[in-house]
From TrEMBL:
Short name of any one Pfam family annotated for the protein: DegT_DnrJ_EryC1
Keywords attached to this entry: Aminotransferase, Pyridoxal phosphate, Transferase
PANTHER family according to UniProt: 3-OXO-GLUCOSE-6-PHOSPHATE:GLUTAMATE AMINOTRANSFERASE, TRANSAMINASE
Any one GO BP annotation for this protein: polysaccharide biosynthetic process
Stated name of the protein: DegT/DnrJ/EryC1/StrS family aminotransferase
Organism phylogeny: Bacteria, Pseudomonadati, Bacteroidota, Flavobacteriia, Flavobacteriales
PTM sites of type N6-(pyridoxal phosphate)lysine: 189
Family stated for the protein in its record: Belongs to the DegT/DnrJ/EryC1 family.
Molecular-function annotations in GO: pyridoxal phosphate binding; transaminase activity
Active site: 189
Source organism: Profundicola chukchiensis
Alphabetized SUPFAM superfamilies for the sequence: PLP-dependent transferases (SSF53383)
Segments crossing the lipid bilayer: none
Domain of life: Bacteria
Length: 367
C-alpha cells in the first residue's frame, strides 16, 4: 500500500539530529520561551522574509491571536466582518468566530480553489475589516487585485499560511505578503513538528508586540497583565525539531514539485481534473488534489489498487453542525469542490516507483 503520507519515513531522514536536539532540550532544564524558540523565530522570520515571527501553540491559535490582537489594538471590534473563502479547513473560520467577528464567505475560483478576487468587492460592507486569504493546498491565494481592494477599502490582509511554507509570489514569500500570517507546523504539514506548533509572522511591530503578550497570558512583564491573554506557546522541544527540519525544507519543496510535475504531465484521464498551477514557485504542493464526478468510486478503486487517498475536505464549513446559522447559504462552487476533490499521495520521500504506480493506476481508471 502506498501511504497517503509516510510521516515515519519523513522524520527518519533526520533521526540522529532530532534525537540529539531532544536530548539537548531535556538536559537544558528549560522547556518554554527559551533559546530554541528564539532561534527558530529568527530563522523562520528570515525564511519568510518577515520582520517578526512569534511561535505559538498551533496554527489555529496563530490565526486566533492575530484577530485578537487587532481587536486589542482597536483596528477591529466584535461584530465586524472578515471575508474568508467558502472552501477552507474549518480552522480558518473558527479563528474569526472565536473572536466574535463575523465570517463572510466568498466563493473560490473553480480552477485554483483559492478565493476569487473578482467576487470580493460585492461582499464588502461598512463592517468589513479584513480578508483572511487561505493558500489552500500550498498555492498562494493573493493577487494584485486583492491587494488593491485591501488598500482601497482599508482592509487588513491576513494570510492563512498553514499549508504554504515557502510558496512565493511576486518576489514575496508566504507569510510576508499580507499584513500578518498564521502558520501551522502540525506534523503532516510541509514543515511539521512532532506534535502541535504554529507561528505568526508579520512586518507590523506593534502587532508583534501585542501577540507576544497575548500568547503568554497577556503579559510582557512577569505577573503584570496588560491584556486578557491566552496560554499559547511553542515548546522548546518542538522549536528545536523545527529548526532542524527548516534546514531541509527547500529540498523537500523541490522533491514535491517533481512529484507534482510527473503527475501533471502523465495523468491523462478524461474523468480526472488535475490541479491548475499559476506559476511553479507559487505552489509548494502540501496536497495534490484531483477532482472527479465519481469520487467514492475512484477512492475505492485506488484503495483496491494499493493507493491510499484522503479528502480535503468532505464538508464545507457552512454545512458543519458547528455553523448551523450558515447552513442555508448557497455556495455552489465550494459545495461542488467538497463533493469532487480527492487528495492523492505526495511528499518528498515518495520513491519514483511509487509515483509511477500512482500514475499507472490513475491512467487506466474508468472513473
Ligand atoms: C492545518 C490548518 C490550520 C490549523 O492548524 P493547526 O496547527 O492544526 O491548528 C488552519 N488552516 C489551514 C488551512 C490548515 O490546513
Amino acid at each position: 500500500m502506498i501511504k497517503f503520507l509516510d510521516l515515519e519515513k519523513i522524520n527518519a531522514q533526520y533521526e540522529q539530529e532530532l534525537k540529539q536536539a531532544a536530548a539537548r532540550v531535556i538536559d537544558s532544564g528549560w522547556y518554554l520561551l527559551g533559546n530554541e524558540l528564539e532561534s527558530f523565530e529568527k530563522n523562520y522570520a528570515e525564511f519568510c522574509g518577515a520582520k517578526h515571527c512569534l511561535g505559538v501553540a498551533n496554527g489555529l491559535d496563530a490565526l486566533r491571536l492575530i484577530f485578537k490582537a487587532y481587536i486589542e489594538m482597536g483596528v477591529m471590534q466584535k461584530g465586524d466582518e472578515v471575508i474568508v473563502p467558502s472552501n477552507t479547513y474549518i480552522a480558518s473560520v473558527l479563528a474569526i468566530s472565536d473572536n466574535d467577528l463575523v465570517p463572510v464567505f466568498v466563493e473560490p475560483n473553480i480552477d485554483t480553489y483559492n478565493l476569487d478576487s473578482t467576487l470580493i468587492e460585492e461582499a464588502i460592507t461598512p463592517k468589513t475589516k479584513a480578508i483572511l486569504s487561505v493558500h489552500l493546498y500550498g498555492q498562494i491565494s493573493i493577487d494584485q487585485k486583492m491587494l488593491d481592494i485591501c488598500k482601497k477599502h482599508n482592509l487588513k490582509l491576513v494570510e492563512d499560511a498553514a499549508q504554504s511554507h515557502g510558496a512565493k509570489w511576486n518576489g514575496l514569500i508566504s507569510g510576508a505578503i499580507g499584513d500578518a500570517a498564521g502558520h501551522s507546523f502540525y506534523p503532516g504539514k510541509n514543515l511539521g513538528a512532532l506534535g502541535d506548533a504554529g507561528a505568526v509572522t508579520t512586518n507590523d511591530t506593534e502587532l508583534a508586540q501585542v501577540i507576544d503578550a497575548l500568547r503568554n497570558y497577556g503579559s510582557h512583564v512577569k505577573y503584570e497583565n496588560k491584556y486578557q491573554g491566552l496560554n499559547s506557546r511553542l515548546d522548546e522541544i518542538q522549536a528545536a525539531f523545527l529548526n532542524i527540519k527548516l534546514k531541509y525544507i527547500k529540498e523537500d519543496i523541490e522533491a514535491r514539485r517533481q512529484v507534482a510535475q510527473f503527475y501533471l504531465s502523465q495523468i491523462n484521464n478524461e474523468h480526472i481534473i488535475l490541479p491548475k498551477v499559476l506559476e511553479v514557485e507559487q505552489h509548494v504542493w502540501h496536497l495534490f488534489v484531483i477532482r472527479t464526478k465519481n469520487r467514492e468510486k475512484l477512492q475505492q478503486y485506488l484503495t483496491e489498487n494499493g493507493v491510499q487517498t484522503l479528502i480535503h475536505y468532505p464538508i464545507p464549513p457552512h454545512k458543519q453542525n458547528a455553523y448551523n446559522e450558515y447552513k442555508n447559504l448557497s455556495l455552489p462552487i465550494a459545495e461542488k469542490i467538497h463533493n469532487e476533490v480527492l487528495s492523492i499521495p505526495i511528499s518528498g520521500v515518495m520513491t519514483k516507483d511509487e509515483v509511477e504506480k500512482v500514475i499507472q493506476v490513475l491512467k487506466i481508471s474508468s472513473t
